[in-house]
Amino acid sequence: PPPPFFFPAYPATPAPLWSRGLGDVYKRQVVVGWGDGGTSQELRHQHLRLFVSFFGGDIFIFNHIFIAFHLIIRNFNPLIITQMENRRVRVRFAPSPTGPLHIGGVRTALYNYLFAKKHGGDFLLRIEDTDQSRFVAGAENYIVDALSWCGIHIDEGVSAGGSKGPYKQSERKAIYRQYADQLIESKLAYYAFDTPEELTEMRERMKSAGVASPQYNAITRSGMKNSLTLPTEEVRARINRGDKYVIRIKMPRNEDVKLEDIIRGWVSVNTNNLDDKVLFKSDGMPTYHLANVVDDYLMGITHVIRGEEWLPSAPLHVLLYRSLGWESVMPKFAHLPLILKPDGNGKLSKRDGDRLGFPVFPTNWTNPETGEVSSGYREGGYY
Ligand code: GLU
């Protein structure tokens, strides 16, 4: 039987074949290879390389000429493996202003920047300041200044402006609530009224029952005060009288969430290992997870390139894209390995720098509370 084709409707008037060069990222990118539908990733890549070497390209980029494309493809009887959206490459660096920019953060920014340049796309700077308790005065200016000194030019973002702003999450507060509500309406999230004491009590109870790291999850949620356990009228009454609540994701039971990380390959996590993360806090602010996904979606981000410490959160983000109906435009993920201590044991810290005599910050940083100065590469005369 002929292989399946996943094309949407063919356009009525096809545009000329390969009318633009490979560098033009506005075009639809189609990655193709031969296969039987069950081919492993490695095999697929072999097929792809073969196909690409035959046509002498890197990635096959077609204009909207599906008829011509279909004809070519038919002759070679391939299976279309991935069809990327017709989108301009857009990446973002999204630091939280909690202190000076660590050299690991500079590297993440650099990789994003270089990727954007390579593909003729956009590099955005977004400030993720939803956690007001960790806010540090001067950190945002430091980040902007440090990137500028490094020659990492921002196309769009807090200091550069742009059409998808504001680019600081605290200024986007009004945007997030509707998405939390959407998740509640579709029963993928719920209200939780538990007090800090009740949460502690639950954790203690679980610990004494032998659970090493107790979580608010599919098992424990049934014994807590939330809109899944309380009668609807009580939930309404509590909200109306102004009781404090958070909105949590209703993590499905026993589902494998898979994502293909550009660096790590396929990552699969069972939802039984994930908890009902808070998406919206009682202070009216979203948490990082919700804000990050909503912003990446609204800002048209195509590739999320970030530190590996965020890999454990990626399955939750995939579920959020799915639950919000955005899976078809979900960015591709690349989680970068962290910069480690010279002995390889743990993340490189400021203390390692002090101990071994090199800066771990791009420029000098003065702690606004203690006045302590941490040395930077710029003032250290490195470049
Ligand atoms: N705000 C997060 C951080 O400071 C960004 C993580 C991400 O890029 O998604 O690391």
Overview of the molecule:
- The structure is a single chain.
- This protein is an alpha/beta fold and 383 residues long.
- The protein is built from ten helices and 15 strands.
- The strands form six sheets. The chain has a three-stranded antiparallel sheet with strand order 2-1-3. A three-stranded parallel sheet has the order 4-5-6.
- α8 packs across α9.
- The longest helix is centred in the first third of the chain and has 16 residues.
- The protein is globular.
- The N terminus is likely disordered.
- The structure holds glutamic acid (GLU).
Q: Averaged pLDDT, please?
A: 82
Largest sheet: 3 strands, antiparallel
Major sheet: order of its strands? 2-1-3
Count of DSSP H/I helices: 10
What is the element string, with H for helices and E for strands?
A: EHEHEEHEHEHEHHEEEEHEHEHEE
> Pairing-aware structural class of the strands and helices?
alpha/beta
Shape, principal axes of CA atoms: globular
Write down how many β-strands occur, each being a DSSP E stretch of 2 or more residues. 15
Strand content: 15-25%
Bound small molecules, which ones? Answer: glutamic acid
Query: Rounded to an integer, what's the Rg over CA atoms?
Result: 24 Å
Helix content: 25-40%
Gap from first CA to last CA: 62 Å
Low-confidence stretches: 1-44, 55-68, 73-85
